[in-house]
Amino acid sequence: MFPAASLLTTLLLALSIAASPVEIRNSPITLPIARRLNTSCTLSRRTGSITVTNDAVSYIAAVGVGSPATTYYLIVDTGSSNTWVGADTAYVKTSTSVDTGEAVAVDYGSGSFSGTEYTDTVTLGDGLTITAQSIGVADTSEGFTGVDGIIGIGPLDLTEGTLTKEPDTTIPTVTDNLYSQGIISETVVGVSFEPTTSESDANGELTFGGTDATKYTGDIAYTPLTTTYPASYYWGINESITYGTTTILAETAGIVDTGTTLILIATNAYSKYQSATGATEDDTTGLLRITTTQYDDLEDLNFVVGSNTYALTPNGQIWPRALNTYIGGSTDYIYLIVSSIGTPSGEGLDFINGYTFLERFYSVFDTTTSQVGFATTAYTDATTN
């Protein structure tokens, strides 16, 4: 098994090589900018969507737990699979709360939690209420100021090893239970993120059980999950990356992760990208920085997945300038959202397409047929950054 902590440690290594973790100014979330990945019934199966909020460095879902429900604000994370609460708002027990007596813990590298497993009623949105969902209730947590925990929508296997006394046991995710309880027709999650220029923008959507055709243009193109370790334990795919017409990363395995802010690439690819753009590393933020002239000269950054190419435009490659001070940067600078993963290509996890990539392309995480899908959106070519 490949534990969730290993990927998150990789993210920390990427940051330590690029620079110190970014300090988020005036932000309720004190985490590094690139930080996360860890009975059938007769009901009519369907899909259901919930709105999630872009908090500039992560997406947050308002999730109800218990009956009556207490609302917790949880980071949306496809890079981990445990759902847990209690980092900020304390867990409130109700008649639906059941203490399983199991200790649970997850180390995210840049943060962690440990506590007790409960089962409880979890309400994601209208018509999306799960009974007896396993949740972690934190006794202690680190790195989660301003949020209550995580809603994990990664693959099931990432939960293995998180129950202290039963390390070989997996824990059904919220998506698994929505399906097993007959609420959704497929174990599929469609993700719509959009660029923002404000510190809090309810512009995201998660669709459980299918996709929302109003959120993308054209067709969704699917690619099978990679078999390359360790990316194969996550929502891993194979892709290559070109800057303009120059290949900077030959086809290799990596992952797609809503819980990582930046696009992280292997060190050798990062060096080629930095050289091609003429960027310098900014001491304050740890991000690559370019001049206005260099921005005008930027070429598309192309992600080639199977027979499809997803072009990240020059504007899509920069941090929203209206939010520069939010990451401790200067209002006069232009920062790139591509950073180093901290290891060279050939390690089996050579890129992470974080949410700054997903803000430009609709994504689908399909457990039913073991694939990930992408489609263009109205924001693919946006110039708001």
Give a brief description.
It contains 5 helices and 23 strands. By secondary structure, the chain is mainly β.
Detailed description of the structure:
This protein has 385 residues and is mainly beta. Helices cover 11% and strands 38% of the residues. The chain has helices spanning 4-18, 174-180, 267-277, 292-296, 355-358; strands spanning 48-54, 59-65, 70-77, 84-85, 98-107, 112-125, 128-142, 149-152, 188-192, 201-208, 217-224, 236-243, 246-256, 263-265, 280-281, 288-290, 301-305, 308-312, 334-335, 338-340, 351-353, 361-366, 371-376. Strands 1, 2, 3, 4, 5, 6, 7, 8, 9, 10, 11, 22 and 23 form a 13-stranded mixed beta sheet that branches. Strands 18-17-12-13-21-14-20 form a 7-stranded mixed beta sheet. The protein is globular. The model is unreliable at 1-44 (pLDDT under 50).
